[in-house]
Amino acid sequence: MEFTALEIASILEGKIEGNPEVKVSTLSKIEEGSAGSISFLSNLKYENFIYETNASIVIVGEEFVPEKPVKSTLIVVKDAYKAFAKLLGYYNQMRNQKSGIEPNAFIHDSAKVGNNVYVGGFTYVSENAVIGDNVVIYPNAYIGENVVVGNGTIIYSGVQLCSESKVGENCIIHSNTVIGADGFGFSPSASGAMEKVPQIGNVIIEDNVEIGAACTIDRATLGSTIIRSGVKLDNQIQIAHNVEIKENTVIASQTGVAGSTKIGKNCIIGGQVGIVGHLKIGDFVQIQAQSGVNNNIPDYGKFYGSPAIEASDFRKSYVYFRNFPSIVKRLEDLEKEIKQQTIQD
């Protein structure tokens, strides 16, 4: 795809300084810019690169005033970083504009497929599935029975949407994620063997959710496992049966959430966090990476450590953790001094 400075300025509502007809076809860092690429300068700490870069176009903020000549055509905007992010989104949208059913894809006769849909080769769309308008499904995906996929959603290769799963509009599900596998439910029998408890619920994913690669979101035992609107999940995350994650919460990679836990809205959860089952995590909570959570957390809580404790308590305790060897030495010296004093007496 090739764009002129004029076209890009129109998208970003920016002002051109230089050649409006110069064309670009790729994106680059400013220090690695080459002819035919577009870059941006948002932090004036890196201003020196703009005088050296070979990028054909550079997006700059209104605060930038060149101290010497710039070879590149400039597009001046209010916020260079936000403008470049907007351009990335536009570029990604253009790149994902695919349509048509590839010959090796299978779509069951009872499935309903909307307008302007792309289904890649070797994808399987099962009975009574509903695929909305402008959906993109890359090759080798599996769409189970009675699955619903909302308008504008992108499903990458290797994704499995198991039966009864519901995915909202404008979601992104990355490769090899499994949504709607059975929850981990077993009950000990009289002989001690573990017997499977049927998992007959489903998974509901609301609008504007992004789920990273190789995540697993299990179906509920009864009812639904629910991922609310705007949630963002990193790669390799496990969400167990009957969990609910509320709006706009962000979770980093390798985190595991056990069954029936409810996580509030606008939370930030670091990587490798473990959260036990049947807890209530409040709204606007922050949990440090590698924390182990085994108690409820109130709204606006900040928790560190394993088991996780209030951030302020953790920082105070850390002073003692760090100085523990010297504290022990002082105690040992004090004991020796007391013993010597006792002998003298």
Automatic annotation (TrEMBL):
Protein name: UDP-3-O-acylglucosamine N-acyltransferase
A Pfam entry, by short name: LpxD
Keywords: Acyltransferase, Lipid A biosynthesis, Lipid biosynthesis, Lipid metabolism, Repeat, Transferase
Subunit structure, interactors included: Homotrimer.
Family statement: Belongs to the transferase hexapeptide repeat family. LpxD subfamily.
Top enzyme class: transferase
Gene Ontology molecular function terms on file: UDP-3-O-[(3R)-3-hydroxyacyl]-glucosamine N-acyltransferase activity
Domain (UDP-3-O-[3-hydroxymyristoyl] glucosamine N-acyltransferase non-repeat region): residue spans on this chain: 22-88
Substrates-to-products reaction catalysed: a UDP-3-O-[(3R)-3-hydroxyacyl]-alpha-D-glucosamine + a (3R)-hydroxyacyl-[ACP] = a UDP-2-N,3-O-bis[(3R)-3-hydroxyacyl]-alpha-D-glucosamine + holo-[ACP] + H(+)
Protein's UniProt keywords contain Repressor: no
Matches recorded under InterPro entries: Hexapep, Hexapep_transf_CS, LpxD, Trimer_LpxA-like_sf, UDP_GlcNAc_AcTrfase_non-rep
Function: Catalyzes the N-acylation of UDP-3-O-acylglucosamine using 3-hydroxyacyl-ACP as the acyl donor. Is involved in the biosynthesis of lipid A, a phosphorylated glycolipid that anchors the lipopolysaccharide to the outer membrane of the cell.
